[in-house]
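Here is the promised in-class demo. Please do not try to memorize the tokens; focus on the logic of going from shape to residues.
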């Protein structure tokens, strides 16, 4: 996967999470995605990074909503 395609998929992750967590401010969702992306930045195999970012950010946002 090239970097342009990865960026597009991460943007789609953000869009999906904004829909999934409509009461969460956009900045909070974007921060969760950015922090998850930073966690996987050094990975050599990039094919599943958007999926891993989505799962990580979803878990973080779900935790924030529960508290």
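The designed amino acids, position by position:
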């Amino acid at each position: 996967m090239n970097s342009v395609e990865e960026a597009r998929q991460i943007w789609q992750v953000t869009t999906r999470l904004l829909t999934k967590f409509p009461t969460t401010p956009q900045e909070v969702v974007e921060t969760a995605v950015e922090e998850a992306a930073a966690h996987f930045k050094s990975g050599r195999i990039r094919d599943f990074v958007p999926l891993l970012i989505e799962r990580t950010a979803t878990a973080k946002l779900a935790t924030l909503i529960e508290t």
